[in-house]
Write a structure and sequence with these properties.
Chain lengths: 313, 267
């Protein structure tokens, strides 16, 4: 079942004094299946946040269509089942964390004991119980992010829309939120998240959409997308194994000395050949690692292909 | 309805935490200061001055709060992007606008009642001090007119908040501040527009002035200080009529704000 379907979504923003139109979304299409985590990735200014705003009805849509849980964009009735974390959560800075959650809960029609219980639960979950009585103006960026995630979950939503959920969090916080998101999926919830932390997207998301210059250029399962992505690898050898270098022969390998190690750099294609040669000589391999995260490779490739004509519009 | 109340309550909390109610201290201070200044004149005169001054101060402070908070009412939430939180919840745009309006109206109600009470105590004190106890005791009506005047002032705030809300839903706080103040002043002197129009020979211009007269709020209707301070009575029909006028006029303004706000994009 499809929870969110965005079809050829177009969005113009008027800019400047003359209200000249700028096309920010140029035909965004993708869908999110029930029960999956969908990663929405793309460079700054690609249109991720704008897509979310259009889906939620904060801005009107110029063209195309959106169907969210079977209803059009911005439909009030489906919002009962949605949780949204804005990009940089701004809140009422005169409220305490607890009061904010209470207000947000009331807007969902949750009241009384049920609400109090839910607030306790969520504060515990995002590790903010200690700051529940502190005004939001005194929160740090990461604390705001945590309370932002808590308010998105207040109604135990079926569908979570998270705009950069990891931003501003320390490593422990990132891990906690990662676990929290995975836990929601385990409960059968659907999640779409945008992120610049590609390793997170790689480890969490079932499917990914790559948006560049207002267009979704690729969508699909991560494995599929990464199939034809080539990455450079680096292999670290002990300095004593210098003879290896001669034996590599016609393989395209860059050799470099670095801090007491020999570093070999080569394309993914010949990885197994290199390993073969090196281990046949009994050389001491310290480590072998890809130079770029694989999604990043996809990113760079797609940007290369799509930047030419697109940016000039 | 619950949504509207939640929004209204939050608006009230914001005003409270913004220290709006400190205006009460300012009011009390002003009143005590003036009573010191006018201490030397006759008791009869003195009572009138305290009342007149008090009612004027309540009106002034209330108008200032209405204009300043009213013009930021909607704009601030868009500017600070808190609308993203509100409208990702099942909240309709009209519920938000109505909630904001009611929240500020309630803030002013609390504030006005408190100022009225302070003034009442001061007047009571001066009357007692001047040995006018008998008149106070038997003259319930006399005090009623005084409370009616405060009620009328509050009705005026309801309209001013509405004006501020309309502007606040499509323009910047500075512009809405200017527009609201401008319309407020015109409203206070709306009677003069008609008088002025009668002297104008040009038909088109006169027609235009008459239209303006019909459209702008007739805020001088809400000034019954003369009756309250110098005797005279405010009859029930007038109260009813003025209340209806304020409620209808304010409702139209809120309705207008909703229409504007419905189309607004949160970018
Ligand atoms: N209010 C606005 N008015 C005009 N243009 C806007 C507005 N908001 C965003 N844009 C433009 O729309 C484009 C997409 O912005 P958007 O915020 O959707 O990008 P994003 O993919 O979320 O980027 P980031 O990764 O930096 O969050 C950008 O080019 C931006 O300049
Ligand atoms: Mg963004």
């Amino acid at each position: 079942m499809i929870v969110l379907k965005v079809d050829n979504l177009i969005k113009d923003y008027p800019t400047g004094f003359l209200r000249k139109k700028v096309r920010v979304l140029k035909g965004v299409s993708f869908f999110v299946n029930r029960g999956e985590i969908f990663g929405f990735v793309g460079p700054n200014g690609a249109g991720k946040t704008t897509t979310f705003k259009a889906v939620l009805g904060f801005v009107g849509i110029t063209g195309g269509s959106v169907s969210i849980m079977g209803r059009p964009a911005g439909d009030v009735s489906v919002k009962k089942h949605i949780g949204y974390l804005p990009e940089n959560p701004y809140f009422y800075d005169y409220l305490t964390g607890e009061e904010l959650l209470r207000y947000m809960g009331q807007l969902h029609g949750i009241n009384g004991k049920a609400l109090l219980k839910r607030i306790d639960e969520l504060l515990e979950k995002v590790n903010m119980t200690h700051a529940r009585k502190v005004q939001l103006r005194k929160y740090s960026k990461g604390m705001l992010q945590r309370i932002g995630i808590a308010q998105a979950l207040i109604n135990d939503p079926e569908f979570l829309i998270l705009d950069e959920p990891m931003s501003g969090l320390d490593p422990i916080g990132q891990r906690e939120i990662r676990e929290l998101i995975l836990e929601e999926r385990k409960k059968g919830k659907t999640i779409i998240l945008s992120s610049h932390i590609l390793s997170d997207v790689e480890t969490m998301c079932d499917r990914v959409g790559v948006i560049i210059g207002g267009r979704v250029v690729r969508t699909g399962e991560l494995g599929e997308l990464l199939e034809d992505i080539h990455t450079d690898y680096e292999m670290l050898l002990r300095d004593t194994d210098l003879e290896v270098v001669d034996r590599l022969g016609d393989l395209k390998v860059k050799v470099e000395k670095r801090a007491g190690f020999i570093v070999l750099r080569f394309d993914e294609d010949i990885k197994s050949r290199v390993i073969e040669v090196v281990s046949s000589l009994g050389a001491d391999i310290v480590s072998l690692y890809p130079l770029r995260k694989s999604l990043e490779g996809l990113f760079v490739k797609e940007m290369g292909q799509n930047s030419g004509g697109e940016q000039k519009r | 309805m619950k949504t509207i109340l939640a929004v209204a309550y939050n608006t009230f909390v914001e005003a409270k935490r913004d220290r709006v109610l400190y205006s009460l201290l300012l009011f009390a201070f002003l009143m005590i200061l003036s009573s010191l200044i006018f201490a030397s004149i006759s008791a009869e005169q003195y009572n009138k001055i305290v009342k007149d001054l008090g009612l004027t101060a309540i009106s002034l402070i209330g108008i200032v709060i209405s204009v300043f908070l009213g013009t930021g009412l909607v704009h601030k939430e868009i500017d600070k992007k808190t609308v993203y939180n509100i409208f990702s919840k099942p909240v309709r745009r009209y519920e938000f606008v109505v909630g904001k309006y009611l929240g500020l109206s309630f803030t002013l109600l609390v504030n006005t009642v408190a100022m009225g009470f302070i003034l009442f105590l001061i007047v009571l004190y001066t009357e007692l001090r001047h040995g006018d106890f008998i008149r106070f005791y038997y003259g319930g009506n006399y005090f009623m007119e005084f409370f009616k005047a405060i009620y009328f002032e509050y009705l005026e705030f309801l309209i001013v908040i509405g004006i501020a809300l309309v502007f606040s839903s499509f323009t910047t706080p500075i512009m809405s501040l200017l527009f609201t103040f401008f319309l407020f002043v015109i409203g206070r002197f709306s009677g003069d527009i008609l008088i002025f129009a009668e002297g104008v020979k040009n038909r088109v211009l006169r027609g235009l002035l008459e239209v303006i007269y019909r459209v702008v709020p007739h805020l001088e209707k809400f000034d019954v200080r003369r009756e309250a301070v110098y005797g005279g009575s405010i009859n029930p029909e007038l109260i009813l009529y003025t209340t209806a006028y304020a409620v209808i006029y304010a409702s139209v303004l809120v309705f207008l704000s909703i229409i504007i706000f419905e189309k607004r994009e949160f970018r």
